[in-house]
Design goal:
Blueprint (H helix, E strand, L loop, with lengths): L1 H36 L9 H6 L13 H5 L8 E9 L2 E8 L4 E5 L11 H11 L5 E7 L16 E6 L6 E5 L5 E5 L1 H7 L3 H4 L11 H28 L17 H27 L15 H5 L12 H10 L4 E9 L2 E8 L4 E7 L2 E5 L4 H8 L8 E6 L24 E6 L6 E5 L5 E5 L1 H15 L3 H4 L3 H34 L1
Helix pairs in contact: 1-7, 1-14, 7-8, 8-12, 8-14
Length: 502
């Protein structure tokens, strides 16, 4: 047994020594970029930013009904999204079909809009940031700020530089002309040492890039091995009872080795969990993919805007909203459990519903319990459920600050949580203000939440409520991880130089 243990220790020493030579540089960069990401996120356009620049839809001047738009489509039955919005300051209908393709129609004439060119991109950019001069920079298929797969239906993207105080770079759809991403200069610059560096985006070439994914997985796995083996070595080399002849508990006298050992023991747990959770974020071998039958969102809706619509013109809907002192910037035609309704948003991303009930049409803020529960039962028909109305965030449904990776997700309260007793234990959260399914999570996805999100971001609601105190703790721990990695870089560099000389 002692021989096996000695061999295991020897193997761990060598493993940590040689993987650490390469991993410590990467780990140091991850800790530095992670601290930046606490305060500066990857460029994104939040719903409230998108809507803030839109004009209010006016009942006196707007618009033809959606029927006239649908009549012009070759396959109206394939429509999955129908929205009255504004692009470049003018009202338009945005239509999305089942494959995810977008098409735009002028909301006054009903004529199909051509693909958005440079002139339309400039007009939309100036409407988004009025008063700032716009300079067209051309088109790009994909670059360092536009890797999101959600942008794929809009590619290639127009780039427009705004002459505002923030020197904002805008990316706009070549299909609809809508602003999709705003990236102020300071955010772009900080991202070079923030999210862009943290996610190893210099190696990423396109939105779906298996080579990049596996490179990051291998790098993360190697760094995890370095951290775990270093922890074992550090514990084995530390004298908990007796001391070495020097009188110290660590055998290392050389400054960098000594402090690498001490810092490693102090910050071993956080370094191991952060590096490991970074590996889990890549979903290696797709181990956290949803399993089995998924909740049926089409059955939950029970129809599409092409099959069921309120018998209400846009002018009538806007007049009803104005009477409620709600100033609509966007109207979406929706269906819930076969019942058509309108989902309306204003410039602050607040919502209202227009719903038919007992032969009349009403404006309301939320859906009632019975309607949502009846619709939810269609998600996994035949499966028993339990449900709860949450007036507070729980460990799976919670809001994040805008700079966080999921900072653009709308997380309203109260929310309906439905737990299905199916083989994969699906949970569904339904936004009572919109009728949308906000999150669906099966058992494996909930495991991912703990192994990635919690370990990596400390994002439990009570911790998020700590605000600056949580940030200070994370920075302190990150500095410890950076110090450990930096001393490792020096040690590794010296060892490599010695190895090369010999």
């Amino acid at each position: 047994m002692s021989t096996v243990m000695a061999a295991a220790k020897r193997f761990s020493y060598q493993l940590h020594r040689w993987t650490g030579v390469f991993s410590c540089i990467l780990m140091a960069l991850w800790f530095i970029s992670g601290m930046v990401m606490l305060f500066v996120g990857y460029p994104k356009l939040t719903p409230w930013e998108r809507l803030a620049s839109m004009p209010t839809l006016q009942s006196a001047t707007c618009c033809i009904g959606p029927d006239k738009v649908l009549e012009q489509l070759a396959a109206p039955a394939s429509v999955r999204e129908l929205v009255l919005t504004s692009v470049g300051g003018r009202p338009v209908y945005r239509v999305r079909d089942e494959p995810g393709r977008f098409q735009l129609f002028d909301a006054r004439s009903g004529k199909p809009a051509d693909l958005a060119g440079p002139a339309e991109a400039l007009a939309a950019a100036q409407a988004f940031l009025p008063g700032a001069k716009a300079a067209y920079l051309g088109q790009v298929r994909e670059d360092r700020w536009t890797h999101s797969r959600g942008l794929d239906p809009h590619r290639p993207l127009h780039m427009v530089k705004m002459d505002d105080a923030d020197d904002t770079l805008l990316y706009l759809s070549s299909v609809t002309g809508e602003v999709l991403i705003d990236a102020p200069r300071s955010q772009r610059l900080w991202n070079f040492v923030g999210a862009w560096l943290h996610w190893v985006y210099p190696l990423r070439e396109r939105s779906s890039d298996p080579l990049w994914s596996w490179t990051v997985i291998i790098l993360s796995a190697t760094a995890t091995v370095t951290a775990v083996s270093g922890t074992l070595v550090g514990i084995w080399r530390w004298r908990f009872t007796q001391r070495y002849k020097s009188g110290a508990r660590s055998p290392y006298r050389e400054t960098y080795m000594h402090w690498h050992h001490i810092i490693g023991l102090l910050f071993a747990a956080i370094v191991c969990t952060w590096i490991f959770s970074g590996l889990m974020s890549m979903n290696p071998f797709r181990i956290f993919d949803a399993k089995g039958k998924r909740p049926d969102l089409a059955a939950y809706r029970g129809g599409t805007p092409a099959t069921a619509r309120l018998a209400l013109t846009p002018q009538q809907a806007l007049a009803m909203l104005e009477a409620e002192r709600f100033h609509a910037s966007e109207i979406a035609w929706r269906v819930l459990d076969g019942q058509p309704y309108l989902l309306v948003r204003d410039a602050a991303a607040r919502t209202r519903l227009i719903v038919a009930n007992d032969g009349s049409v009403h404006v309301r803020e939320q859906w009632g319990d019975a309607t949502l529960l009846r619709a939810a039962s269609k998600l996994l028909p035949g499966m028993p459920t339990s449900h709860a109305w949450l007036g507070h965030y729980d460990t799976y449904y919670y809001g994040r600050q805008p700079e966080a990776m999921m900072g653009a997700a709308e997380r309203r309260l109260p929310v309906l949580r439905v737990q299905f007793l199916d083989p994969h234990a699906n949970w569904v959260y339904i936004d009572s203000y919109t009728g949308d399914v906000a999150i669906t999570l099966d058992r494996s996805q909930r495991v991912s939440r703990w192994l990635f999100s919690f370990l990596h971001s400390w994002d439990l609601p009570p911790l998020l409520q700590m605000g600056p105190l949580r940030d200070a703790i994370l920075i302190l721990l990150s500095l410890g991880g950076m110090a450990l990695s930096t001393t490792g870089v020096v040690i590794g560099f010296r060892r490599m130089r010695l190895w090369i000389r010999n």
